[in-house]
Amino acid sequence: MQSQESLEMLVMVSRLLSSKLDISELLLTIMRLASRVVGAERASLYLLDDKTQELYFDVALGLPEDVQAMRFKLGEGIAGTCAKEGRSLIINDVASDPRHSKKADTKSGYSTVSLLTCPMIIKGRAIGVVQAINKMDGGFTETDKTNFEAFASQAAIAIENSRLFSSVKEEKRKMEIVFSRIKEGALLTDVDGNILILNNSAKSYLEYDKYKFTHIKEAFPGFEIKPGLDSVFACADSSCRFELYRAKPKRFYLDVSEIKLLAEDKDGNSRVEGRLWILSDVTAQRLEELMARNFLSLISHKFKTPLSSINGYAQILKDEAQAKGLPEIVAKSSDTIYEQGQKLTGLVERLLDFVTMDNLEAASLEKIDFDASEFLTEIAENAKENMKGIAGLNVKITVPGPVKITADRKVLAMAMRSLIDNAVKFNPGPEKLVLLSAQARDNNTLISVGDNGPGIPGEELDNVFNKFYQVEASFTGQVEGWGLGLALVKKIAEAHGGRVFAKSQLQKGSAFTITLPN
How many CB atoms lie within 10 A of CB 106? Predict the structure, then answer.
């Protein structure tokens, strides 16, 4: 039975060990307390090297350097036997025990008479051994063993906690180094948005020294946020993007990616345990886009007036040539001027459509619910009417069951016309099949336009949605257009809170799908 004095000693030991997190300081404390717990002359502490499966002196108070460098294999000596078998050993006559290794005594000049050796065990695995050497009053007893085992257990827990703390500190140090070297702004928060780490770029972008914010929702004073942070926190995707804009003291744009940091629980289920926020300065890019948009708007409007005059007089000249039998060169020239004028008018109108849609905001959409089958039928009829001069055109519709679309009908129709135009325009084959389809899936409506054209190389599938981009085979002027149609479709999809993506097989065709939330 433990005495009151022993219990008080163990309580004091527990408090001391739990207060130490630095591993070196902790091990020194263990060494100094170990002998006091059972009234021994001195103590030693061995830790287990997981790689070599050897015991070594991590702390060796008063021992020569050559003794400190010694290592013992599992099963070697009393300490090695204790660690291998995972049980405590009392030996009050060390000289007569064949397991005792005399090499430490020989090198240190110290005579070991009695030993109390206990394993330090965590989760059923020995992480080391603690020894009390030479009982000062008689021999070690079972009570001493009980007390020393309690001490060894507390020491093992303290060592494990210290190692975990050191590991976390090291990981944090590495993360801080990585953060400091990232050119972009970077913030690490917990799930709720409390800021844990931010790098120098983030501090500079967000004026951290001025505002001293501690939560991500406080981190953007003076910025307009599109969309709001509430929608970002509600986003279920693994990553979400939003934009920050500040007008003063000068225009400043930041593109922000919120990346969820996932961890698996014991059942293999993923849970969010933190968020990484990456801030990229896109001011130059946004100002360039604004200038380009203003330029496009300017030239498209400036083109309209002279084009109206050219087309009007070309029509008159063409009619006059036919009515009055003017020379063939006049008739042919007037036909050419009129035809090319109409093509140029079409290009300018598409440019105006894009400029209008490029300024599209979600708040300006007039969303309604309507039937997908009826909508696609209307789109198909209009396409056939507008392309009745194109040989081999075949437009089909596939809608399996009733499907509801929630969107701005007029704006979505513009996106569909652009996809159909592309499906026909880039198909050099004699049979031009266009397949319109819609289906409901996972609280979304998917609307697709497929074709039997030449297909798109895999490396181009993302690029085709960029402004002014056409794949190489069609960029030589053989196909008319600005390369803005798919950029317009992307803008319309994103304004609706959805997205657009493409799938394609060379020589078999392509399919473009707009995904809209219900």
Answer: 10
pTM summary value: 0.46
pLDDT > 90? residue 20:
no
Q: Is 316 left (phi over 0), alpha (psi -120 to 50) or beta?
A: alpha
Decide: 447 and 463 in contact? Cβ < 8 Å: no
Quick count: other Cβ atoms within 10 Å of Cβ 92? 15
Topology of domain 182-281, per CATH?
Beta-Lactamase (3.30.450)
DSSP states of 470-492? --GGGTTTTS-S-S-HHHHHHHH
Residue 111 CA to residue 94 CA, distance in Å, equals 10
The predicted pLDDT at position 476 comes to 31
Q: Which CATH superfamily is domain 4-168 in?
A: GAF domain (3.30.450.40)
Q: What CATH code would you report for 362-517?
A: 3.30.565.10
Number of neighbours of residue 315 by Cβ within 10 angstroms: 15
Take residue 180 and report the two structure tokens written for it.
Answer: 């400091």
Which candidate, 489, 407, 400, 413, places its Cα nearest to that of 440?
A: 400
Give CA–CA dist 296/299, Å, rounded.
5
* Lowest-pLDDT range of 9-13, 108-112, 355-359: 9-13
What percent of the chain is predicted at pLDDT more than 90?
30
- The secondary element (H helix, E strand) that includes residue 134 is strand 125-135
Phi, psi of 225, rounded to the nearest 5 degrees: -115, 120
